[in-house]
Amino acid sequence: MKPVKFSFALWASVALLGACTQFPALDHTISPELANADYPELVPLQPVLAAAQNSRVEPVQAGAAIDGRVAALKARAARLRGSVLTGAERQRLAKGLR
Question: What are the Cα distances from residue 71, in Å, to 49, 65, 77, 80, 93?
Fold first, then answer.
């Protein structure tokens, strides 16, 4: 059987098995108080849109912040690439393994 056909058959069988599950009983799971409660009050959209438009991101500042973060992450990665053990610890470990 080709890998593509096998993969398709596998996913099809998973989908069919998922269709065999019993649907959970969701009737009467909401309390009567909640079912009879009023709808939430709608908020005007204009103040939200105005606040979003007034809070623009400055590309120069964002770029500088991202560049600083990239440099810090690269420096951290360089430190993590180093040896964890000192030379003396490495010799002691090698001696213990013999």
Answer: 35, 10, 10, 14, 35
